[in-house]
Amino acid sequence: MNIPQTKQEKNMKKVLIPMLALIILLLMVAWLAGSFNSKVLPGFEKASSESVNATTFTVKSSTERVFESIAASITAKQATIISSRLLARINKINVRSGDNVKKGDVLITLENNDLSSSVIQASEQINAVAARYTEAQQNLLRAQELFTKKIASQFDLDKSKADYQSIKAELTAAKQSLAQAQTTLSYATLRAPIDGKVIDRFAEPGNTAQAGEKLLSLYNPLSLRIEAQVREQLALSLVQGKRITIDLPTIKHTLVGLVEEIVPAANTGSRSFLIKVSLPYQENLLPGMYARLLIPAGHVQKLYVPARSVSHSGQLDFVNVLIEGQSQRRFVRLGEETKLGFSSIISGLTDGDIIVIPIHLKK
Questions:
Q1: Residue 250 pLDDT more than 80?
Q2: Nearest to 136, CA basis, from 108, 102, 171, 105
Q3: What is the pLDDT of residue 199?
Q4: What is the pLDDT of residues 251-260, one digit of tens each?
Q5: How far is residue 26's CA from residue 30's CA, in Å, rounded to a whole number?
Q6: pLDDT for 96-130, tens place per residue?
Q7: DSSP states along 232-270
Q8: Long-range contacts (CB closer than 8 Å, 24 or more residues apart) made by 151-157
Q9: Interhelix angle 113-148/154-186, nearest 10 degrees
Q10: Runs of H (alpha helix) within the chain
């Protein structure tokens, strides 16, 4: 038998159900917020009990010289382009890229049949004029003898002198023509002007060499140097003959060079000066390779800590700092390792901080 609910009971249900839902919702929010979890009071982390032995290190700043790295290139002081003075077909090229040559070695020969014929023709012309010259000289001697004996007239003597001088001039001109023909013939043989190495060749046998067109490029490996554009403030601190450290990252080597030349005019676009530094001979260096000049740029204060005192967590670096007798883990930023066994600190520590260096841990 159902007992009918009174109006008052129905009103109570309408009030209790929403209140119960609200209470449950508040309890869930409090649980998600961690109100029912145990709290950890704020404070410094206690020193790790795992460290059996530890030592300390007091951070001290040191004054060091700062070097500015300037991008540079290796160039050859002594380099040359081989080109032809003639328009002629190339008969033979005796070298290729990378070959070593000596001064005077034959590099290229051009077709020279016409030039050889010109030399022969000029030589025969000299022989013909030389015969006439000998005859004119003898005629002049006879004319002078006859004039002395008053057998020949002054007119005959003057005519013999004129013939002699004319033929003498012809002989001189013929000799000059021969020299010119021989010089032109020599242009058909291209020789190395320096001791060096072939960089590249730009033609092949059978091609026609144009006057002034490059055929080969050479450089002297003993004349390599560094060239760099250096900003005004640094460039003005340099003087000719100053020693500069040269970093060669390609071969992972460092050299010391001397400032050889400072171009006395600034580049108006970059406000920099062209600096040329001599380079000691290195067999594995080539023109165009990348280098860096390390130019002194003042002094800076740096902090160092032992490298073994730095711990790593992913990409983050930490050290343990001793504060009020307790070890506190602190985040630091590291710089370049310029000292063996030590790491430079960019930020995170100050002069006088004491760091804890664990020696070994319990197993």
A1: yes
A2: 171
A3: 92
A4: 889 999 999 9
A5: 6
A6: 999 999 999 999 999 999 989 999 999 999 999 99
A7: HHHHTT--TT-EEEEEETTTTEEEEEEEEEE-SS-BTTT
A8: none
A9: 160
A10: 7-32, 113-148, 154-186, 232-235
Among candidates 132, 88, 73, which has minimal Cα distance to 286?
A: 73
Specify the pTM. 0.60
The phi, psi pair for 260, rounded to 5°, reads: -95, -35
Confidence of residue 36 (pLDDT cuts 50, 70, 90): low
Confidence band (pLDDT; 50, 70, 90) for 227? very high
Q: Give the span between the Cα atoms of 104 and 132, in whole angstroms.
A: 39
Structure confidence at residue 191 (pLDDT): 94
Tokens representing 122? 């000029």
Contact status, residue 328 vs residue 284, Cβ threshold 8 Å: no
Q: Can you tell me whether residue 81 is helix, strand or coil?
A: strand
Q: What is d(CA 228, CA 234) in angstroms, rounded to the nearest whole number?
A: 12
- Per-residue tokens: 33: 């917020």
The domains located in the chain, with CATH, are 51-63+301-361 (2.40.420.20), 69-77+222-299 (2.40.30.170), 85-110+189-219 (2.40.50.100), 112-187 (1.10.287.470)
Q: Mean per-residue pLDDT for 165-173?
A: 91
Q: Residue 70's beta-bridge partner residues? A: 293
